[in-house]
Amino acid sequence: MVASICHAREVAKREPTILGREGLSALLDTLRANGYQLVGPVVRAGAIAYEAIAGLDDLPAGWSDSQEPGRYRLSRNDSPALFAYTVGPQSWKKFLPGAVTTLWQAKRQPDGGFVIAEPPTAAGNYAFIGVRPCELAAISIQDRVLQGGEYCSTAYLARRQKNFLLAVNCTRPGGTCFCHSWGTGPKASANFDLVLTELLSPPGQRFLLEIGSATGAEIAVQIPQQIASPHELAESAQLLERASHQMGRTLATAGVKELLARNIEHPHWESVAERCLGCANCTMVCPTCFCTTLSDTTNLTGDQAERVASWDSCFTLAYSYLHGGSVRSSRQARYRQWLTHKLSNWFAQFGEAGCVGCGRCITWCPVGIDLTAEVGAL
Amino acid sequence: MKLAKSVPGAVTEAMVPEVVRVRQVIRETGDTITLNIAPPPRAGGFLFKPGQFNMLYAFGKGEVPISISGDPGHPSELLHTVRAVGLVTSELTKLQIGDRLGVRGPYGNGWPMERAKGNDLVIVAGGLGLAPLRPVIYHVLRQRGEFRRVALYYGARTPQDILFLHELEHWRGRLDLDLSVEVTVDRAGADWFGHVGVVTALLANAYLATDGTVAFVCGPEIMMRFAVRELERYGLARTQIWLSLERNMKCGVGLCGHCQYGPTFVCHDGPVYRLDSIGDLLSRREI
User: Does residue A75 sit in the same domain as residue A150?
Assistant: First the structure.
């Protein structure tokens, strides 16, 4: 159980410890032995993806990435490093609860009526391995959206209730990263069970382990580890301090809410629209974008129906369709809606920004539109 | 339907409709009907506020937000007025007595009836916008003494598109109600003796007191924009004018994101907005 908004628990205070590679392997095995399905980073189709993993050997050892607007490349070297890359196109929303969720099914009855039944909720006791600080922030934002209000998504709630978060601090930010601007990284500060910092200095690869929740502490006591030395603590702090100065991008977050709010009409929106393809990539890769559409369908005979929720994007025309046409028919209005929602309206709705500085929307934009630059141009 | 987060085991999916039966179908115009449906069972009856809406589900076809057009003081009867404009609304207008449909709700904030108490009330409706305002009129008629002058200005496309025609005539004819009803149409044949022109033209000839007046406006966005202009011309402040807005809506409960209007969600912050609460958004395009 994570220290979520619903179930904050007293966290046992413990000294940071050090694990070797075997220790980390034992940690993953212990999570599995405690009933968790492990999901972690793997190399798929030339990118880091999040998939089910069996253990340590499935992690992308020696891989690192380079990211720029509209560009992503993976490369491999001899390093034993397991976390020398930043985030790929996928985020943990792939499992929370995922791109497509069946909400209910309906069946016609002999008397002409119909009955509606909810399918059993696929709970899934997921342990997420290698969650980055920006992604912890994104999960916490989605918590507020999807389970913090009067109504909540039951599929999301079911997944989050039994969700272990093994975080990894970022010692090597990417070219499109700007978490430091939001204060969401590169060091995890909340909303995790355990967090690792990977150290590669002599005498060799090891992981600083810190505890973030009671559940994390219960798992941690089951694995062999040593108290971290002052030298190791200093090295970890130094790596994270250095990382915070190596962000590929920065965003002037102070006053950004007001900046967007007073620039609903601005010639720059037209300039973005000239480049924007309206492809919706940015919303699909964004770890906080939560919009879904609901589709109602029947089988061929027409006597069974179901409702499915699937990810939607404010960049589609259908998103704002009202009888007679779409409210936001121009691309500039759709880009404005997205950016203004993320950086301004989100504050009014949920008390914070809808951006964590992960840089995915910049990297995966086919034409390299850079959120930080667009804000800078307003 | 409401989620008890503190008892996770008891959580019900907010997107599951209740199945109800059509009791009566009232044909209003060529493309518009009013469905009288058996309300979902609730302790104390299916209570709703004027201006609230339900999500109506046509089996296998989909779900749409439809405002409740019936009498809030008569919660055993649930009325929705539906115009066939798309796949789901076409299906809903084909329903017959005894057919089943799904319903979720009521959602949204509703008109501020308390605020209108002791004031003059100006109701401005365009087209189907009269439907979410009819519960206001029912409420006013039930509690007539609580309001001062009440005037309805209603515009339809043609005489054949006038909704609730008999009720409009009845309201206008009853001297004891003191309800002023003015109707106009955009275009009409030679057999029409009423006003021709947009509803804002009716307003231009109205007499409105600046103080102690509140206005409820519902209709196409362009009509509301001009209605607001007329009302402001009389000196009504933006804090005296309420509008009911519309956006694409899927979930109705603030989870799907579709109905965003500036920093708000129409499904739970609206659909009724006091004009000053939306800044200058009404005059912006593609919000």
Answer: yes
